[in-house]
Amino acid sequence: MLLIDVARTSAAVASDAARLAKIAHLAELLSRVGPDEAEIAVAYLSGELPQRQIGVGWRTLQDVPEPRQVAVATLTEIDSLLQRIKAQSGAGSQAARKALLADLFGAVTRQEQSFLQRLLTGELRQGALDGVMIEAIAKASGAPSAEVRRALTLRGWLPAVGAAALRGGVEELRAFRLEVGRPVAPMLAQSAPNVTAALEKIGGPAAVEWKLDGVRVQAHRSGEHVGVFTRTLDDITAQVPELVEAVLALPSDDLVLDGEVIALRPDGRPEPFQVTGGRVASKTDVAVLRETVPLSVFFFDALRAGGADLLDLPDEERHAALEAAVPPELVTPRLVTADAEEGEAFFADAVRRGHEGVVVKSPSTPYAAGRRGAGWIKVKPRHTLDLVVLAAEWGSGRRNGWLSNLHLGALDPETGGFVMLGKTFKGLTDELLTWQTEQFLRLAAGPTEDWVVSVKPELVVEIAFDGVQRSTRYPGGMALRFARVLRYRPDKRAEEADTVAAVRALMP
DNA sequence: TTCCGACAGTGGGGTCGCAAT
DNA sequence: ATTGCGACCCCACTATCGGAA
């Protein structure tokens, strides 16, 4: 199959807003692709590469050669070129990668160039990724989408699942099982403003668990071999020896556990996320780092234990299996209750101890990996500040033509100026985007950069955020974590905004 | 007919590894 | 030694479609 076929299908998918039409376009192409190229086609049309990442981003793709006039490149040819690019490493590799990229882009038409560029930068923007592709695979293969979804949960990689479905239909999909040593797509949580609301959503008794601000881990043990994987299924076994040892110390040698690693201080309180994240990402000097920044692990789920696969069992049964397999000090603290007051108190205690919040879990839901089902609901405290808009950036995609991303500052009473604390684009409705674009253009101050418009610091906006963290990027040495817009405060003048000191008081 | 679950898009801060400078 | 880039940890929120109620 030619790359142009895939690029044209992608264009058709993008041009139809209706999901059923997108699915029809994708299924039509999948029904035509041969078995050797099915995995590539599924990958490209769901915004992935068979190689996952190849070390090429937006900067490397700045200048590409003139396109060909005639489309001749096959999926197999493109795939092997990308494979060669990924294989480049060591001194001179950047030049080698650029040369191969020039070959690649010189061998395809303008439409294919655009497609590849968006694919490689992870910005396909055709309104279809895994969710729509699952339905398309189902349609093209004749297998029920629930079977496709289940196989994806167990295999964690849709191109492989799609190829299997197209090759062998539902029978081949059913051959996917939980394999110890191969990560499963992790179950995700929705969110609620408080424990009371979360309990209401679940209706009846629920488990309320500490939410630790660390890194999600899935630990597999088969015999004396342990593998540890992140949320995106990357293998981090070598970076977390403490976790490997903890799993090897368990009595069972046949386990798949879900949990969180976190760096704790000697007094047991959690380090800021930056510390845990940095430690987990470090690949060098791990033996030294484990002395200075030791990691602890807390498990909250068992996908395999006691010689059985547990994914389809309800939460309370999986948790019972977890408690049987793991000593209590390695199990995430948890309270089962239907009482909102009790749940809120448990939440308040977790936060008081420095943790991120809680996750409220329905006792009856199976491990529904990969879908943000209503089985798990996270609850975190929310801070707010009234800050001043210092500038705004032109948006892209559906926000084209709107000033979207806000630069936020706190008042510095000493100078009467403002100290930037970060940016946000979240929480804005189309109506608000329209309104603020008008306001910012009215308040535009000085020369306007390419994509940034500086504005007179007059508009006050109420910002919600999860916390304040240390920053080397911003002048105050602080940045907001997960900042989002709640509302504008036309009733407040800039001189009445919250101060730098007020923000500093929130630093851990 | 209305409601709501699931999805995709639109970007945020921080940190590490690596190659180039 | 420093800088820039790519990858990947953590992520919130809105608009939209289409099936559920």
From TrEMBL:
Signal peptide coordinates: none
Entry's EC annotation: 6.5.1.1
GO terms for MF: ATP binding; DNA binding; DNA ligase (ATP) activity; metal ion binding
Cofactor(s) the record lists: Mg(2+)
Active site: K211 (n6-amp-lysine intermediate)
Domain ATP-dependent DNA ligase family profile: 288-412
GO biological process: cell division; DNA biosynthetic process; DNA recombination; DNA repair; DNA replication
Database matches in Gene3D superfamilies: DNA ligase, ATP-dependent, N-terminal domain (1.10.3260.10), DNA ligase/mRNA capping enzyme (3.30.470.30), Nucleic acid-binding proteins (2.40.50.140)
Positions of ATP binding: E209, R216, R231, E260, F300, R372, K378
Entry coiled-coil feature ranges: none
PROSITE patterns assigned to the protein according to its UniProt record, in alphabetical order: DNA_LIGASE_A1, DNA_LIGASE_A3
Keyword entries, A-Z: ATP-binding, Cell cycle, Cell division, DNA damage, DNA recombination, DNA repair, DNA replication, Ligase, Magnesium, Metal-binding, Nucleotide-binding
Main EC class the enzyme belongs to: ligase
Reactions that this protein is recorded to catalyse: ATP + (deoxyribonucleotide)n-3'-hydroxyl + 5'-phospho-(deoxyribonucleotide)m = (deoxyribonucleotide)n+m + AMP + diphosphate
Source taxon at top rank: Bacteria
Family: Belongs to the ATP-dependent DNA ligase family.
Function: DNA ligase that seals nicks in double-stranded DNA during DNA replication, DNA recombination and DNA repair.
Protein name (Swiss-Prot/TrEMBL): Probable DNA ligase
